[in-house]
Structure prediction request, 321 residues.
Amino acid sequence: MNIGPIAIPPAGERAAGTFTFAGDAGLAKYEWPYVAIAGLMAGPTVVITAGIHAAEYTGIEAAIRSGRTTSPDSVRGTILILPLLNRPGFYERSIYVNPEDGDNLNRLFPGKADGTWGERFAHRLLTEIITKCDYSIDLHAGDLIEDLVPFVSYRETLDAALDARIQGMANAYGARWAVKTAPTGERPGTLMAVAAQNGVAAMVAESGGRGQLIEEDVARHVTGVTNILRTIGAISGRPARVVPPTIVKSFEWLRSPVEGIFHSHVRVNQMVKARDLLGDMTDLLGEPIAALTAPVSGVVLFIVTSPAIKKGGLLLAIGAL
Ligand SMILES: [Zn+2]
Prediction:
């Protein structure tokens, strides 16, 4: 059996190696790592992805670790792990984007067969691999210049049965916070959003950041993924009971009105009230040029840790409560 370009091993076995997207010279310059684990018993097909943002290392490391430690004896169905989607960006330490075309790969789905590098990659990943699976778990972290508090994210589809499966996954991860978006919500081109629109039970989990491979952040992802796999019946063992996350009312991204140096006055996971002072911007001589206030009350979910901010640049996000 194959899932797109990846040969799935016989039941009870694990295969690891690399694959490429043949017939497209731009894509086929690269080889992507994968692990495929085929269970002895029947069950769902699950794809676990990471590194669509190439410097979100805890997700990448957790996917690699899950691939090495999940025993075929425990698997029901098939688990496919793609630990580094943004292969061009990894050794470049790319922040947010893919160096082949400068676009954020997680905004380009469903992609285009004859588009830019990122659009073609998105099209082939989606049509050949993701939509052949029943479940999709996409692991992220704060980017190289972001700190965050762990949270899960998912999108409603208006298909009640699919939404229940998605929520069951998100609840099993063990995060304190969840961002749930409407079917017509912002950032429609994410892998998670388009996978869900195509009938795949899809979610994102965020843990870690700042380019650091902190063990606690990696372990949180591995534990969360394992508990999701148990919950959906993809591996044996009873899932741990975890407290479901609090779903925030909206996910408010704050951007800078000016170019300058960002001084944050808050930390991730801090509660803030609407109109609280969150930080300020100064120019390159230290003159204050903008005060940054909270648009809503809620919890700070991520903060950009680099002080060098362009006009319109992202600063932080609040989950409204
Ligand atoms: Zn990300």
Q: What stands out?
A: The longest helix spans residues 215-231. The mean pLDDT is 97.
